[in-house]
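Entry for the shared binder. Reason: the reviewer on the internal report wants the predicted structure included alongside the sequence.
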Amino acid sequence: MKKEQAIMTFPCTFPIKVMGLQSDEFESAIVMIARKHISKLGEGAVQTKPSKNGKYLAITITFQAESREQLDNLYREITARDDVKMVL
């Protein structure tokens, strides 16, 4: 049996990008989910960029990831939202 090699070592700085439909509550909902999974969400950790026509919003959250489990849980909760189109 081969030993699995870790692709990432933790803790590490990790950017997650969430793209979804622009709405009044989209950004705050994504940040609220992030705060549940990220204990230290620093000042300036959240950046947003609207699409050219304003229909979509890209939110990038850069944080100190502590474990693969943390990333998996964050990803699962964000992707469960209907207004989220893509997570990178």
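Summary line for the report: The CA atoms of residues 38 and 63 lie 8 Å apart.
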